[in-house]
Design goal:
Mean pLDDT: 95
Helix content: 40-55%
Strand content: 5-15%
Order of helices and strands: EHEHEHEHHEHEEHEHEHHHHHH
Radius of gyration: 20 Å
Low-confidence stretches: 293-298
Largest sheet: 9 strands, mixed
Structural class: alpha/beta
Oligomer: single chain
Number of strands: 9
Shape: globular
C-alpha cells in the first residue's frame, strides 16, 4: 500500500526518509518541490500536486506548519475537499490549535473520511534517528490501522483517546520541555557570569538526577554556544503561543509558560529566529546587560 506524505520540511524530511528507507512505498508532495529530491533518491514517487497524492493513496500523512497549510493541501473550503478526503485516513502529525483540529476532524468525517491526530514529541535529531514519540487520537479503527505504519519514525506510540486529546497531550509535554530548556539556559548563564567552568557544570548536570536526553544535548549546545537549529526559536515560539492560547481558553494559569513566551519573543526580535531554542540564552544575556530587547540584534 502506497502511503502519501505531504510536507517535506525540517521534520518531514527525516520522517519521510525513515519511512522510505524502511521499504514503505511513498508518494510525497511539498510546496517547494526541490525539497522532495532527497525522497525521490530514496525511492519515493514525487507528486506534482496534493490532489495527485490523494488520488494515488488512501492514507495520507500531513507534516505541515499550520492550519492554513493543511487547509490548502486538503482543498478545505473548496469542492475538491470531499474528493480528496472521502474514503481516506488523514493523519495530521503537525502541531496546530486544538480547536482547529477538532473542527477538521468533524469536516473530514462529514466528507466520508477518517481523521487521526498524531503529533510527535522530539526535534530534528530524534526525527533523523526514528526516535520520535507519537501521541494518537481519533477513530479507534483508523488509529489502529495507522499505528504500525509509524514504527519507522517513532519508537513509541501512545493512545490518547478522542480528538483533540493527542494535541493537548503534546501541549502538556511541550510546556515541560520549554520550561526545562529555558531553565537550563538560565542556569548556564548564571554559572558563566560567576566564572564557573561550564564543562564542569555540564558534567555535574549530566550526572545529576535531572539529566535527560534533552538536557544533555541542549547543555552541550549551550556550553559550546552551538546555536544550529534542532528546534528553532520560531517553531518553539509558535508552540509556546499555542499552549498559552489553550491555557487562556481553559481559564488556566500558566506563569512559567508566560515568562518563556516573553523570552522567546525577545530572542526572535534579537534576530535569532532560525537558530536553536537554546538561543533564548541571548535574551537572558540581554536582560542581564541591561540592553532593551527591542533595541538590539546580536
Amino acid at each position: 500500500m502506497v502511503i502519501g506524505f505531504i510536507g517535506i520540511g525540517i521534520m518531514g524530511t527525516p520522517m519521510a526518509l525513515n519511512l522510505a528507507r524502511a521499504g514503505t512505498p511513498l508518494m510525497v508532495w511539498n510546496r517547494s518541490g526541490e525539497k522532495c529530491e532527497l525522497l525521490r533518491t530514496a525511492g519515493a514517487n514525487v507528486a506534482s500536486t496534493p490532489a495527485e497524492v490523494f488520488r494515488q493513496t488512501r492514507i495520507v500523512i500531513l507534516m505541515l506548519y499550520d492550519g492554513n497549510a493543511i487547509d490548502a493541501a486538503l482543498g478545505r473550503g473548496t469542492p475538491e475537499f470531499e474528493a480528496n478526503v472521502a474514503g481516506h485516513i488523514i493523519v495530521n502529525m503537525g502541531t496546530v490549535e486544538a480547536g482547529y483540529s477538532r473542527g477538521l476532524d468533524a469536516d473530514v468525517r462529514a466528507a466520508g473520511g477518517s481523521y487521526v491526530e498524531a503529533p510527535v514529541s522530539g526535534s530534528r535529531k530524534p526525527a533523523e534517528a526514528g526516535q520520535l514519540v507519537a501521541m494518537l487520537a481519533g477513530d479507534p479503527a483508523a488509529v489502529e490501522e495507522v499505528r504500525p505504519l509509524l514504527a519507522p519514525m517513532c519508537r513509541e506510540t501512545v493512545l490518547c483517546g478522542a480528538v483533540p486529546s493527542a494535541l493537548l497531550m503534546k501541549f502538556s509535554v511541550n510546556l515541560f520541555m520549554i520550561a526545562m530548556v529555558t531553565g537550563l539556559a538560565e542556569a548556564v548563564h548564571f554559572a558563566e557570569r560567576h566564572g564557573l567552568d561550564l564543562e564542569r557544570l555540564r558534567a555535574v548536570l549530566d550526572a545529576s538526577p535531572m539529566a535527560s536526553n534533552v538536557s544533555k544535548v541542549k547543555c552541550e549546545k549551550l556550553v559550546a554556544r552551538d546555536f544550529e537549529a534542532q528546534a528553532s526559536i520560531v517553531d518553539v515560539l509558535k508552540n509556546n503561543r499555542l499552549i498559552a492560547e489553550q491555557a487562556r481558553v481553559s481559564n488556566l494559569a500558566s506563569p512559567l509558560l508566560d515568562v518563556c513566551h516573553a523570552l522567546y519573543g525577545e530572542t526572535l526580535v534579537l534576530g535569532h529566529g532560525q537558530k536553536d531554542m537554546v538561543s533564548v540564552l541571548h535574551a537572558i544575556e540581554a536582560r542581564t546587560d541591561g540592553v532593551l530587547s527591542l533595541g538590539r540584534a546580536s
